[in-house]
Amino acid sequence: GCLLRHKIILKNMNSIAKPMANLHVSADAKAAFAHSNPVDGYRYHISETLAPITGKPSSEIYERLAWTQTFDKGDLGLPVPALRIQGKKPGELAVEFAEKYPESELVGKPIVNGTFLQFYFKPEPLSKLIVPSILKKKTKYGTNDKLGLKDESDPSSKKKIIVEFSSPNIAKPFHAGHLRSTIIGGFLANLYDAAGWDVTRINYLGDWGRQFGLLANAFEMYGSEEKLERDPIGHLFDIYVEINRLSKSEEDAIKEKKDELKQAEEKKQDPTELQKEISAMEAKSVNEKARQYFKKLETGDKDALATWTRFRDLSIERYEKTYARLNIHFDVYSGESQVEMSRMERAVEQLRTSGLSEDSKGAVIVDLTKSKDKNTKKLGKALVKKTDGSSLYLTRDIGEAVKRYELYHFDKMLYVVSSQQDMHVAQLFKILELMGNNEVAEKCQHVNFGMVQGMSTRRGTVKFLDDILRDVGEHMHEVMKRNEKKYQQVNNPEQTADTLGISAVMVQDMKGKRINDYEFSLERMTSFEGDTGPYLQYAHARLCSITRKANLTAQDLESADLSLLTESHAINLVRALASWPDVVQNTLKTLEPTTVLTYLFKMTHMLSSSYDVLQVVGSELEVKKARMALYEAARQVLSNGMKLLGLNPVER
Length: 652
Ligand code: ARG
Hints:
The protein is α/β, with parallel strands linked by helices.
């Protein structure tokens, strides 16, 4: 393993700027540079230098070296109290360590700020290390295949992750919960991809249950082949609404009769006639028909299944088109229908024999309140089998999790599901564990998120993803028209409006911490000012425009003399670009898209304040080349970040 790792390092050494080659640092530090997480390389370098000075192991220092809030506080900071050194005041220790710390080719002497040590990367070596590396690695800058390896010496030993996300319900509205799951899940899948994991994207459709009985009946009563072909999702939804209306009125009528019956019984009248009437009404109700139809589905009736398959396939076909607009694809369309009855029966049986479940009025429940564990107690009672013997959402999830483990042997599985289902998911994981599937349970993680308020379309409440995207696109188009001069320069305004609109929705969704609720605001998200999707797109398009105007070759940029980047704006930009791979690595810990967005906004704000100072067109040729190399590196990082989030960077 070690040998191969050193070979990789040696191979990459050529691409590392001179100062690194001469530096006396460990293999770990060199590997970090070689695998293009430069900040991590510096982290190793500083902690190894500090180890003998502080008497603490470098690994401990490494853990404590943190990002700074702003670059005036350095590139990395060390809170001396965190090292827990006895006997001296941390402030005094900080001074002592700073005095003893030898300046190297990469890092200057640290600055003492109270009990903090602030480390500054030297500008010129940093520029010479970072800019060429970005220009060379291009879309790969920020990715790190090594992170997803089971065995570092074997590049084929990828860790396996399942990301389950989106998971809408067929014939029901695509609500904000599904929107958030789609956006966040798509991002997380990209993130693990970038870290070299083997990612499988699963869409777990709500495609089973009595609603399909209702739907089949609805199609018989109100369906149209032509409409189904043209707009399956819309048509199925419409007829589903229609039959629910009918079912509701039938239910009301039955309830009325039952009230009559009650009164008759109180008055000691003969109830027989009324009882007969009620039974007859129930027997011919659409609800009863739906129940029978679903029974046929669950027992494998060929015709019923054929109809169901058709509804499902047509819906998936349509979903795929919409997901493609968001740069999302799924490897597997699973769903509640895909969990075999036998599997669920086995699960219920396993729960019974291990004494976890109990019968409760003909149903089967798992009573977690009986647990001694305080956290398990809170999970309440979970129903795993209904009185009529039919299966449940939870039971299907148990079966599906076990099935996925058998199929994929995953190292990790993410459930990207709204925090409204916290209880459900916690019950699922706990029951899996108690059943003896700890191996599965411990690899599962719930990635939850808060609610969206006020999401509605102009035509009323939201039904489908396409409605949302269409509305935002239209609104975006209007915003673009407000700037007539710029609008004239866009080649295909409709399409650009559509792309910007999608960016607007996605950035609004990923801007805050996942768990926070947010207010859906067309006006705010489509603005070119403030931290919005259109703002990022504008920043990218502006860099593209500078490139077009500068009209330099790739060779010009590669040979640029980067020592000419002396202005503080240029230096700070380089420092920001250097930290991108470390941001990605940190995002793997937070699993928060805002970690990436906060970075991108900070970087683009720095860019926009640089344009006046670091002009390209009109500068002397060598300066022009150096600045253009820097801007091209910035464009590359911005583009990589946007793509990681699932956005399509525009060029104009
Ligand atoms: N279809 C479900 C809903 O719309 C979400 C599925 C979440 N995933 C799961 N494995 N339960 O509420």
